């Protein structure tokens, strides 16, 4: 089992709490964790979970049928045309 982040920091820098306000600041300075640069679009929850949502929609369509677009009727199942009065 690997050591926790706290254990790793304490092994490298005992009493780190004297110099750092948080465990993450100490770990970052020691090189144990690193920030990654990512696009702002990837930070949106809706974008991060888009693949999960599409898989759920595909599973729903497979089981229950339906269209690809929510709120849209299947082809041929639209509103009926009104009969013209004679």
Describe this structure in words.
The model has no long low-confidence stretch (mean pLDDT 81). It contains four helices and no strands. It has helices at 5-12, 23-29, 45-48, 50-64. It has one domain (1-64). Helices cover 40% and strands 0% of the residues. It is rod-shaped. By secondary structure, the protein is mainly α.
The gist of it:
This protein has helices at 5-12, 23-29, 45-48, 50-64.
What topology emerges from the helices and strands here?
Layout: H1 5-12, H2 23-29, H3 45-48, H4 50-64
Total of domains: 1
Taking the alpha carbons of the first and last residues, their distance comes to 83 Å
Mean pLDDT: 81
- The secondary-structure element order is HHHH
Overall radius of gyration:
27 Å
What class would the helix/strand composition place it in?
A: mainly alpha
- Give the strand tally: 0
- Overall 3D form: rod-shaped
Descriptive terms for the model:
86 residues; 0% strand; rod-shaped; 4 helices
